[in-house]
Amino acid sequence: MSVDADTSVAGPTTVTPTSPQVPSRFSSWSEIVVLYAISIFGALAISALLVTVTGGEWRSVFSALLDGSLLAPGRWGTTIGSATPLLLVALGTIVNAKAGYVNIGQEGQLLIGGGAAAFVGVHLGGPGPIVFVAIVLAGIVGGALWAGIAAGLRNWRGVPEVLTTLLLVSVASQVIGLGFRSESFLLAPITEGSGTQVSQTLQMPDGVRIPRITIFGNEFPVSVFAAVVFAALLALVLTRTVVGFRLRMLGANARTAMRSGVDSVRVGSAAMLISGGFAGLAGTVMLLGGDFGGYRFSPGFSINFGWTGLLVALVARERALAAVAVSFVFASLMTGSGFLAATGVERRITDVVQALLVLALLIPPAVLFVRTRRRAAAAREART
Predict the structure, then answer these.
(1) pTM
(2) What is the domain partition of the chain in residue ranges?
(3) Within 10 A of 342 (CB to CB), how many other CB atoms are there?
(4) pLDDT digit string, tens, across residues 103-146
(5) Comparing C-alpha atoms, which of 34, 48, 38, 35 is closest to residue 353?
(6) What is the CATH number of domain 74-317?
(7) Mind spelling out the 3-state secondary structure of the chain?
C-alpha cells in the first residue's frame, strides 16, 4: 500500500511535466511547416496572378523557369555554378551578423576581390599552382580589406557600418573603373586587327582555372564542394567552439560580452574581415570557375551576386547549412530567367518572384516571434 501511495504522489510530479513536451514540440514543428507552406503557396499564387495580369501564361512561365534551371540539358550544372558564389557571400554575411555587425556592401567587396584576383592573375607569372594560390589569396585579402574599412570607421570613429558598407559599393565600382583606364592595371591590350579596346582583362591562364567536372551532361566547377565544406565547418564553429560562442555572445549583447572578457573591437573587426574575405573569395571563384565572363574580369562582373548572397543569408535565417539549399533556390531563379524570353514575358518577372519568395520565407519567423512575445507578456501579467 505504501508503494502505491508513493507512486500516486510521485506520478504527478515526474510524469506530468515531461509528457506534454512531445505533443507541444510536434505541434510547434507542424505549425512551422504549415506556416511555410501557406506563405510559399501564397507567394507563388501572387506571382502567377501578376504574370497573368501582365499578359503572360503562368504555366508556361513556371515551366520555363524549371527548364532553364533544372530540366533542360546541362542546366542544373549551370545552376550549381551560380549557387557557389551566392553561398560563399551568404556564409560571410552569417559571420558578421552573428557578431552583431550589419554588412550590406558585399557587392563592392566581391567586385574588389575579383579585381584584385584578376590583377594578380594577369601580371604574376610562374607555375600554375603558385599563381592560383596567389590569386585566391589576393581575392580574399581584397574583399577583407574593403570590409575592414567599414569596421575601422565603426570602431574608431563611430560611423555605422550599415552606411559605410553601402557607400563603399559605389566607391568600389569607381576604383575598378579606374583600374580599366590603364593596361598597367586591368585593361587588356588591343589585339591585332581590332580597332576598339574593350574594358576587360586578359583571360586567366589555363593553369590557374578551377577544374570542372561533368555529371550526366552537367558541367560545373569543383569549387562547389569547397563551398559546401565551408558551410559545414562554419556551422560547426558557430555552434561547437569558443570562437563561435564569443561571436554569438557579442551579437546577442555586446555589453555582457565585454564584461565576460570578449574584446568587442577585435572580435567584431575579425567578423567583418571574414565577411569581406568570403565575398572576395566569391569574386575569385566567379573569375576562375568559368561560368562568368569567360575567365575575364570586367567592370560589371559582380552582376548583383553580392546583393543576392545577402538575401540568401537573410532567408536562411543566418544558418550556414540552410544557406546551401537557399542559395540553390536563388540560383535557380537566376539561371531559369534566361528561358523566359520564349514565353514573351519580361525577365524582370523573376525579380518579382524572388522578392515574393523572400517575403514568404520571412513571414513565418515574424509570426512566431510575435506570438512568442505575446505569450511571454501574457505569462508576466498572469504572475503579477
Answers:
(1) 0.85
(2) 74-317
(3) 11
(4) 999 999 999 999 999 999 999 988 889 999 999 999 999 999 99
(5) 48
(6) 1.10.3470
(7) CHHHHHHHHHHHHHCCCCCCHHHHHHHHHHHHHHHHHHHHHHHHHHHHHHHHHCCCCHHHHHHHHHHHHHHCCCHHHHHHHHHHHHHHHHHHHHHHHHCCCCCCCHHHHHHHHHHHHHHHHHHCCCCHHHHHHHHHHHHHHHHHHHHHHHHHHHHHHCCCHHHHHHHHHHHHHHHHHHHCCCCCCCCCCCCCCCCCCCCCCCCCCHHHCCCEEEECCEEEECHHHHHHHHHHHHHHHHHHCHHHHHHHHHHHCHHHHHHCCCCHHHHHHHHHHHHHHHHHHHHHHHHHHCCCHHHCCCCCCCCCHHHHHHHHHHHCCCCHHHHHHHHHHHHHHHHHHHHHHHHCCCCCHHHHHHHHHHHHHHHHHHHHHHHHHHHHHHHHHHHC
Q: Residue for cell digits 540568401?
A: 312
User: What would the grid cell of residue 150 be?
Assistant: 567599414
Are the beta carbons of 86 and 224 closer than 8 angstroms?
no
Side-chain half-sphere CA neighbours of 18 within 13 A: 4
Q: Cell for 65?
A: 523557369
pLDDT tens digits, 82-97: 999 999 999 999 999 9
State how far the alpha carbon of 89 is from the alpha carbons of 69, 102, 260, 367, in Å: 21, 14, 30, 27
The answer to whether residues 142 and 115 touch, using CB atoms and an 8 Å cutoff, is yes
- Residue 38's contacts (CB-CB under 8 Å, 6 or more residues apart) are none
